[in-house]
Amino acid sequence: MALTLAEAAKLSNDVLLVGVIETIIKDSPILQTLPFVEIVGNGLTYNREATLATAAFYDVGDTWTESTPTFTQVTANLKIMGGDADIDNYLVATRSNLQDLETAVIQLKAKAVRGLFEDTFISGNSGSNPKAFDGIDVLCPSGQTLSMGVNGGSLTLDKLDELVDKVLGGKPEILLMSRRSRRIINKLARTAGTLLETDRDQFGQMIQYYDGIPIGVSDYISDAQTQGTSTDCSTIYATQFGEGSLAGLTAPGGLQVERVGSLETKDASRSRIKWYTSLALFNTLKLAKLVGVRP
Q: Considering Cα of 90, then 92, then 95, then 101, what sign does the dihedral take?
């Protein structure tokens, strides 16, 4: 069963690990909602539906034609991500009364891990960096890609509705975009005489909704993408999450905080945050993107 990081943190008795997970997911609309499937091994091979089976009407005595769906076998390999955090023993001994230095240093490293995951979630490309996993920009097929034009164009609510309709089997669970794109949608809504819905998330932060779909803002979606002759374009993504849609993959134990211990070459101790993780798109109809969004 897939669990989000927030739910997985509730199953841990490690206070430091729980704190790291909370640090990672607090400001990330992706990690707050993305479920993770725990797998044993170095990757997951799954069958993605390629073509649907067909059905027909028949008269009495007709010969029935057999039709079965076809599948494409896809493999998502776990990748190793993380970083080390060194805590100087002198500072721990002389300044630990001011704050818990170990926790502070590890939380800063946790933010770096979050940044790397979010960046890779959007634009990861194993073709250009074999150490990374493919992000949603690579995973989204051409048939699920909409465009604002050859050279991009100004966003319209009609085009945003078209993007929402590209995701089949229910509404998207998130619309992921840059801050600039969110401002454009807010302006379009005000011009139309309406306002976007707002509510609080699990951390008490206000989030906006378009047609009941949460709007997630990612600082890793560039507003300087090239579309034709334009170099000021951005992309909006719409997706569903889950084991039959888009889900993260993780090794048993998920995100880990490991105390490496004292170092030989300096008076410090080291902790390591590591995560064996990847991303899997089980059904291509659960992810769509709109490219060429200009200001």
A: positive
Rounded Cα gap, residues 148 and 135, in angstroms: 22
Match 């979050």 to its residue by tokens. Answer: 114
Q: SS3 helix, strand, coil % of the chain, rounded to 5?
A: 30, 35, 35
Q: Return the residue matching tokens 């000021």.
A: 232
Which of the 8 DSSP states describes residue 114?
A: H
CA 193 – CA 110 distance, rounded (Å) = 42
Q: What's the residue count for the chain?
A: 295
pLDDT, averaged per 10 consecutive residues of the chain (295 residues), comes to 70 74 82 91 87 90 90 92 89 70 82 92 96 96 96 96 96 96 95 83 80 93 96 97 93 87 90 93 96 96
Q: Is residue 114 within 8 Å of 21, Cβ to Cβ? A: no
Provide the 10 A C-beta neighbour count for residue 10: 9
CA distance 241 to 173: 7
How far out from the chain centre does Cα 23 lie? 16
- Beta-ladder partners of 135: none
> 10 Å Cβ neighbour count for 16?
16
What confidence score (pLDDT) does residue 152 get?
A: 96
Domains assigned to the chain: 5-49+73-134+244-281 (3.30.2400.20), 141-241+286-294 (3.30.1930.10)
Burial degree of 134 (CB within 10 A; 0-12, 13-18, 19+):
buried
